[in-house]
Amino acid sequence: MRLSAIGDVCHAVAMINRIQTHWPDAEITWVIGKIEYQLVRLMPNVRFIIFDKSQGRDAVRQLRQAVAGETFDALLMMQVALRANLASRVIRAKQRIGFDWARSKELHWLFANKRVAPHQHAHVLDGFMDFADALGVPPVSQPQWQIPVSDEDRRWAQQQADRLGDFVVISPTASKAQRNWLPQRYASIARYLFEKGKAVVLCGGPGVLDKQTAAQIQTFSPPVAADLTGQTSLHQLLALLSHAQLVIAPDTGPAHMATTVGTPVIGLYAHSNPRRTGPYRDLDKVVSVYDQCIEEQQGKPWTALPWGVRAKGDSLMARIDVAQVEQAIDRVLG
């Protein structure tokens, strides 16, 4: 059971692929959010139950109906939010596996009868892999992702890539405005990439914040080859990211989608610890001011604080300057 969000669903895919690799006959049911389902809906040998949290009690009723008469060998409770914990009560399972005590929040521990092993300072993906460990699935040296997309979406992405040539994707919008970098600085980075011979593509979801952020960037007249904000499905975006030379993004879903297709990511972080939520394969490329911000606010380094503590403030991302991102680009692209 993992309802949201896009980045966390990408992490969960790696855990499911691990199970399927070692136990190809395992019957897997995934309770997932409505939007997130659109990313993984073509995964083979997975039965999906959509939980639309906007429907409130009706969503729980529909979940109860979907699993009526079933008893699962194990329920992996991979979300600590109280809404998910309460909904999980309608699922019968011999083992209800939850997070360890240190990672349990919002009364999560009350709904589990078994817990994963403690894991200090674990990236979210590694924390999800702890559930496979609890099941006894053999370990893997590196996570693997298999998120199928249609041939039609692959052809669309190939057409875009052929038209653009060498291109870099900027996905500028996080779920909250305070986690976004400054529009004028994204525009400066677009110009820097253009000078290096790279086409620049803006992308994002159909939400108001995504469209406003893209529009604000465009007011600085950057050399953007294509603004696809709100114009792609998740599968089209995933296929497009597979052709990009680089993705630049704050803490947002497309950064983790890029990781699943092997595209390098420069993540921009101030509020959350990138060691926990950063692009899994590119933590060495992150541009982060989190360490400084959290120590200033808490009076101690992140190593002395509970794992996952966020820094607070509306202007923290402004502490990332253009030169830092340019240097990171040079390390990736030369």
From TrEMBL:
CC annotations in GO: cytosol
Gene3D superfamilies per UniProt: Glycogen Phosphorylase B
A Gene Ontology molecular function term of the record: ADP-heptose-lipopolysaccharide heptosyltransferase activity
InterPro entries: Glyco_trans_9 (IPR002201), LPS_LOS_Heptosyltrfase (IPR051199)
CDD domains: GT9_LPS_heptosyltransferase
One BP term from GO: lipopolysaccharide core region biosynthetic process
Pfam families: Glyco_transf_9
Alphabetic keyword roster: Glycosyltransferase, Transferase
Name of the protein this chain belongs to: Glycosyl transferase
Organism, as annotated: Alteromonas halophila
Gene: waaC
